[in-house]
Amino acid sequence: MIKPNKPKTKDKILSVAIRMFNEAGIQGITSRHIAAEMGISHGNLDYHYHTKEDLLLAIYDKMRDEASETYSVREPNSSSLQHFQHMVSGLEEFQYRYRFFNLDVLEISRSFPEVNKKIQETLILRKQQAQQLFEEFLEDGYVSFPDEDVMERILHTIRMVITFWLSQMEVISPYRFRQKGEMVRLVWNTILPYLTPAGREEYERILDLAASETAGKS
Q: Which stretches are transmembrane (predicted)?
């Protein structure tokens, strides 16, 4: 029987670091904490990731690859709105998987310039991808915007919601919309007023499909 390949030390370090950062935040964990948790020497960890920024760069590359798959992988024969639902749902799960990064994104951006550089590059890419998808909404007759500025502002609003979803739950604690799935609903709420009759029909179909899938899992 072929034995499965054991995870490489570099991959183990990333997994443990992500878990510990999620639990205690970016400032609460050092490379020595991670090495001790893994039962390896600090020198061994330092051999793979010389600095905390090196470690964060590796984590961010992993994050970007996963998010890119969410943006690009599309179910066969799915409509543009259905792909949007799949994408935003995946991004909400992504938020919880890398909780620390989304909660500490401002601190990370200010403290680690190379990571910030990659974040800015990624934001430009995501803006282009989101704009292409919205242009597909228009071509499919699912939405109608008064002008291009409205569409750009909606895209910007959605990006803010996705980027700061977990942070706002920490800060604006009295509000009740805190369950998983609420981020997706809020994103949709920014688009609903601009759906055409065809878009509204497709949206209702997507909701029915999601409800059926949820019922099938229970």
A: none
| pTM for the predicted model, two decimal places | 0.86
| Separation between Cα atoms, residue 99 and residue 102, nearest integer Å | 5
The 3 state secondary structure assigned to 80-141 is: HHHHHHHHHHHHHHHHHHCHHHHHCHHHHHHHCHHHHHHHHHHHHHHHHHHHHHHHHHHHHC
Residues 58-73: tens digit of each pLDDT: 999 999 999 998 888 8
What are the structure tokens assigned to 32, written together? 């020595």
- Looking at domain 75-217, its CATH superfamily turns out to be Tetracycline Repressor, domain 2 (1.10.357.10)
Residues 6+ apart with CB under 8 A from 163: 102, 105
Cα four-point dihedral sign 39, 45, 51, 56? negative
Confidence of residue 165 (pLDDT cuts 50, 70, 90): confident
Q: Which two tokens stand for residue 95?
A: 């938020």
